[in-house]
Design a protein that fits this description.
By secondary structure, this protein is an alpha/beta fold. It is built from 4 helices and 8 strands; from the N terminus they run E-H-E-H-E-E-H-E-E-E-H-E. The protein binds iron/sulfur cluster (SF4). Iron/sulfur cluster (SF4) binds near residues 7, 39, 94, 99 and 100.
């Protein structure tokens, strides 16, 4: 089946610091499935590297105080477009990210603390019927298909 995946989990250097979050469990899924990479923050036109952002009170702010909510919403819409055009019903997304996190995200203080909540793209995908798993559940995907 086709699975939408946070591009950084596949080793793409699209993370805010120019690195990636390569995850072998996620990469292993490519043996049986077609993985469709997306990076909502790149889709939003944000640079690599970039100042990190977190969600606070429903809006997205970069660490240097810029309101990037509109950009994050734009990137989320584009990720949804890719999901729908490619026929993905399920997504494996990077945990805790302000775009891709699902269930738990960083709390907006840039201290590494987390709160309950969803990233902007994860929320939009979920609202449109896509099942979302974090990378720590990649090897359990059979339970969700
Ligand atoms: Fe990875 Fe998502 Fe952040 Fe892009 S927006 S670097 S895919 S966590």
């Amino acid at each position: 089946m086709k699975i939408l995946v946070s591009a950084c989990l596949l080793g793409e250097n699209c993370k805010y610091n120019g690195g990636n979050n390569k995850n072998e469990k996620v990469l292993a899924l490519a043996k049986e499935h077609t993985l469709i990479p997306v990076c909502p923050e790149c889709f939003a036109g944000l640079t690599i590297p970039r100042v990190p952002s977190e969600i606070k009170d429903g809006k997205v702010f970069s660490k240097d105080g810029k309101d990037l909510t509109e950009e994050f919403n734009d990137g989320a819409e584009k990720a949804l477009y890719v999901a729908e055009e490619s026929g993905c019903q399920i997504a494996i997304l990077k945990e805790r990210s302000p775009s891709c996190g699902f269930g738990i995200i960083y709390d907006g203080s840039f201290t590494g603390k987390t709160v309950a909540g969803n990233g902007i793209a994860a929320q939009l995908l979920y609202d449109n019927g896509i099942t979302i798993l974090g990378e720590s559940k990649a090897d359990k995907i059979g339970d969700y298909i």
